[in-house]
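dumping the sequnces here before i forget
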Amino acid sequence: MQFMLLFSRQGKLRLQKWYVPLSDKERKKISRDLVQTILARKPKMCSFLEWRDLKIVYKRYASLYFCCAVEDQDNELITLEIIHRYVELLDKYFGSVCELDIIFNFEKAYFILDEFLLGGEAQETSKKNVLKAIEQADLLQEVRLLTDP
Amino acid sequence: MPAPIRLRELIRTIRTARTQAEEREMIQKECAAIRSSFREEDNTYRCRNVAKLLYMHMLGYPAHFGQLECLKLIASQKFTDKRIGYLGAMLLLDERQDVHLLMTNCIKNDLNHSTQYVQGLALCTLGCMGSSEMCRDLAGEVEKLLKTSNSYLRKKAALCAVHVIRKVPELMEMFLPATKNLLSEKNHGVLHTSVVLLTEMCERSPDMLLHFRKLVPQLVRILKNLIMSGYSPEHDVSGISDPFLQVRILRLLRILGRSDDDSSEAMNDILAQVATNTETSKNVGNAILYETVLTIMDIKSESGLRVLAINILGRFLLNNDKNIRYVALTSLLKTVQTDHNAVQRHRSTIVDCLKDLDVSIKRRAMELSFALVNGNNIRGMMKELLYFLDSCDPEFKADCASGVFLAAEKYAPSKRWHIDTIMRVLTTAGSYVRDDSVPNLIQLITNSVEMHAYTVQRLYKALLDDISQQPLVQVSSWCIGEYGDLLVSGQCEEEEPIQDEVLDVLEGLLVSNLSTPVTRGYSLTAIMKLSTRFSSVNRIKKVVSIYGSSIDVELQQRAVEYNALFKKYDHMSTVVLSKSSLFYRFNLHVLYYLVSLLFQANDLLDLLGGNDVVPVIQTTLPTKPASAGGELLDLLGDLSLSTYSKNGLKIEFTFERANPNPNIAVITIHATNTTEADMTEFVFQAAVPKTFQLQLLSPSSNIVPALNQGSVTQVIRVLNPQKQQLRMRVKLTYTHKGSPVQDLAEVNNFPPQSWQ
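..and the predicted 3d for all of it:
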C-alpha cells in the first residue's frame, strides 16, 4: 500500500497515512486531486479505479470515504477486506464508531491503524490481538514514567 | 501563563468557526501560543501542543515549527510523549529533511527498550518512513528482533525488514539466517508478515527464490490447515479462516512456482482444492479465488487447472458485484493471449459488459472484445462493437474507432463489408476518428478497386447528410475528386448526381464554417482533380482562380499553382492529376511540391531525365514547398557574370574551348571560402538543358578551406552541338560548422564565347 486517506463527503481530510516518501506539497496535491476524483464518482460505480499510475481502492462507510492506493500486484478484493477490518477495529474500540469519534480522537485512529498495518502491510490478522495491544498501550499512558532500559 | 488548552477543546472551538477566515484566525492565535510554549521548553505540555499542531496540520496549515519538538517527545521517558512524538515524526517529517536523521539514535535506543510497546513504536516508525541511512544504521537491530521469540515484536520486525530491504537492497543477505524457522511459527501475525518478507526477498533476488523454493511443501501444508481446520473465532471472516494469510501464501506460491515444473506440480492439488471449495457468496471468498486464479495462470499448471481458473473468471463476470466483474475483466485481459480459446467461450458475457454502467468495466470489456475478434466471429462482434461506438461516452470513441478499423482490416469477410464498416464509423463517430486514419482509409479505398463506384456513391450521399465530421468529409472529398467520373457516369446503383451538383457540394465545403483548413485543402484539390474528369472545366477554373486570392495561405498557394497548371501546362496537368500517376498517394505535400516545381520549371530543364547529373527533385523535400521557389528567385539576384557568391562561398567560372572539338566548352569552377570555418564534404552538381551534354570531372578536393587559404577546382565539359545559349542549374552541398548546407542556383549569363 502506498497511502491511505480518510475523508468526508465534503472533502475534508480526517486521516492520512503515507507509506511512500513524498513532500508535504506533493501530498497535499495528491490528496486534493484524488479526493475530487472520488467524490465525483457515482454510487453505482465500482470501488476500483486507475488514477495517474496508481490503483485506487475505496469504499464509503456512512459519511466517511476510506481510500487506499495499492501496488500493481496487490489484490484489490483483499484490500477491500483490509479496509473493512480497519473499520471493524475502530468500531470495536470506539463502540459504534462515527465520523465525530475520528475527528475528536484522530490520534487514536492513527494508533489503531499502526497496530494493524506497518509499512503498508497487515502486521496482525487477528482482530482480538490488535485490540488487546491498543488496550495495553493505552494503559501504559497512565504510568508516570517508563523505567529506563 | 495559563495551561495550554486541551486538544479536544481546540478541536471543538475550531469547528465552531463559520468561515474560512474565522478558522484561520483561530489557528493563527493558537499557533502563536504553541510557539511561545515551545520557546519556553515546557516539558509538561509539549505533548498536548504537538497533538494540537498535528490536528491543525491535517486541516492544511503549516506545522514545520513542530518538527524538532517531535524529536524531543520521542526522547522523553513518558509513553504518551513517545506515542505522540513518533506520530508527529511520521506526519511532519519525511526523509528529505535532515531533521529526521536526528531520530536515528532515539529509535536505536527504543528498539532496545524494555517495554515492548516502545519497541513497537520504534519498529513501526522505522518501517514506515526510515530513510536509507537510517535503515543502514539500524538494520542490525531489526535483524536481532527478527529472531526474538516475542511474536508481538517478531511480526513487526519482519515488516520493518521488508522496508529496509526496499530501501537498501544490498542488506537483504543479512536477514537470511533469521528467516530459517519463520514459517514454523503458530502465531498468524508472524506467519503473515513472514510470508510478506519471503515474498519481497524472492521477488528481488533469483538466488533467494531458488533458496526458498524448498518451502513450497510447508506453505502448501499451512494453506491446507487453514482450509481444512474448523471454525477459529480469532481469525474467522465470514466462515473463512484468515483470508489475509491465505491470499499472501497464494501469492508467494505464485512466485515460487513460476517457471518451475516441480514446484508447480507440488501446489497443483491445493490450488484445485481452494478453487473448488471456497465459498463465493461474499467478497472475502472471491478475494481468495481471485488470488488463486492469478496463481494458476502464472505458474506451470496443467491445462485442466487453467480451464478451471478461466471458468472461475467466467462466473465472476456474471456476479452481481461490479467489483468482481471488474477484476474478472482485468484478469481475462491478461490471459487472453495465452489462453485465447478458453476465454473465447465467455465472449458473449464479455460483450454484455459493454453495456455496463461503470466506465472502467466498459473500457475493459471493449479492450477484451477487440482481443477476441477473429475471422469466425467478426460479423457478430462488429455489430456489437459498432452499437457500442454509437452509444458510448466520447472518451471511448477514438479508441473504439481505431479498434474497429484494425479489426476490419484484419478480418473483413468482404471488401464491401469493409467499406460499409468504415462508412458506419465515419458517420457515427466521424469527429473522434484519429487524424492518421484518413490517409490509411484513403489507401484502403484505393486498393479496393472494384468498390470504387460503390464507395464514392456512399460517401457522396453521406456528405449530403452531414458535413460536420471532418475525417468523413476529407475522405469523401478525396474520393469524389478521384472517382468523380464513376459518380456521375451511371455506374452507381442509385440515381446519379450531375456534375454541377457534385461541384456544388465540394464548393459548399470550401465556404462552410464547419470545414477546417485541412478539409478545405482536400476539397479544393478534389475540385481541381475533377477538371480532368468532368466537362465543366470552366466552372472549375473559375473556382480555382477565386481562391487564388484566399486569405488562407495554403489554399491560396494551391489555387495559384493549379491556375498555373491550367495556363501553362494543360498537357502536364493530365499527367499530374491522372489516376495512374504515382503522384497519387494522398500525400498532398508531395503533389504540391511537384506542382510548384512545374511552375518554376522552364522548358530548358529536363526534370525527368538526367545525364550524369542528380535531378534536383530527389534530394530535398522541403516542408514549405513554396520556399524552394523562393530560394531560387533570390539567388538569381545575387548572380553576376560568372560568379556565384553566397554565405562566404564564392565560385568563379572560367571558360576555355577544348581542342580539337569546338563544340565542347570546358568550364572550370574555383570555389573559395571567406568564412573562418572550413566547408567540408563540398559537392558541386550541375544540370543542363536537354540539348546539351555535360561531364563533370573529379574535383580537386572536398574541402574548401577557410579564410581563402585555398580553393576547390573542378572541370566541367559541356557538349553543345546545337550551339544554343548555355544555361546551367547548379547544386551545392557542404558541411559548415557542423551543419549541412544546401543551395541551388541558376547560371544563365555565360559569356557568348563559351558556347558559340
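The mean pLDDT of chain A is 93.
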